[in-house]
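Sequence in, structure out. Go.
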Amino acid sequence: MKLLYLDCFSGISGDMWISSLLDLGLSLDELSSYISPLGLQVELQQESCTISGISACRFRIESSPHPPLRHLPEIQEILARLPDEPLRHKANTIFTTLAQTEARVHGVSPQDIHFHEIGAVDTIIDVVGVLYGLQQLKVEAVYASPIPWPRGFISIDHGTVPLPAPATAELLCGIPCYGVEAGIELVTPTGAVLLKTLVKQFGDFPACSPLAIGYGAGSWQRHDNKPNMVRAILAEDNTSTSSLEPITVLECEIDDMNPEIFTHLFNSLQTNKQVKDFFVTHVQMKKNRPGFLLTLLCDPVNSRTLADWLLLNTTSLGVRIYEQQRLILPRWEETLASPWGPIRCKKALLPDGSHRCKPEYEDCVQIAQQHNLPLSQVYYQLTQLG
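Output:
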């Protein structure tokens, strides 16, 4: 499995992240072709530079000097032109998160957000470019170092604000940070929202085998003369045994909610990419009312967002949050040939070196319905293929 570790010793922005991926081998021509259907009328440029004696890549976008101010629905209309559905979904999630954050900061509805940071062509390309680059480099997990939190001020459309900018500061909640005296903006809102939505874990470099290193240069020079760049390490997790990873458990009891709401609740949780798993346990409450214990599993960085979501979407008055570790097996998705055509399956590597294959439920149901077969028979035959 390939992973990417972002060494954010000087922060990160969307263009710095893309620059590092280009330095790792992402093709600029292929990226340009991919974003062409968006109709943004831009020219992408890649140039080499040297910072503190280190050869790095700098990514630039040539576009109109006065990009239109777009609302979130207009951004979503543009993203709808992307041919790749999973990538399109991730991009929509990122922009929705950014709009919701800006809405909280400014006290308005996400649909009313109307500003350069979300409407600028650069931001659209940064988000789509990072997602496309990770896909092309076959990165399955992203890790990152703790993030620098600079002191100082910056001028934006709303006036002079402290660093990090309010939206950036909001997005960095839940992410390990440390204070620095840099004198410039080190983390942009785009960089922060990409970290928030894509990074699996923040901390030290994980156990893995580095394959290549890319340096993405920032646009500004730091006042303290430290290199303004991000270092991206493309690595391979070649461990053949199970590994421990941090996990956050969220719990809340529900005993006074209309049961019909559970259908919406479960559908929402099932499609939420931040939720790793969830389940319900029947419990007896202290006043002898029958109730439910709802349990969610998520990455630590997403715990506060999901806890707030539970408080908004259930009748619970509190959510317990606690950290655990879980032992996980290396796993990946494959497409297998079957008598009924290509079938998706999840494969796991067991501690003894053998494999376990589990066909996707949706594919099995479709086969059973099309060929009038028992679902158990389809499962059995497909399991033998793995």
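Check: Residues 241 and 351 are 5 Å apart (CA to CA). The chain is about 35% helix and 30% strand.
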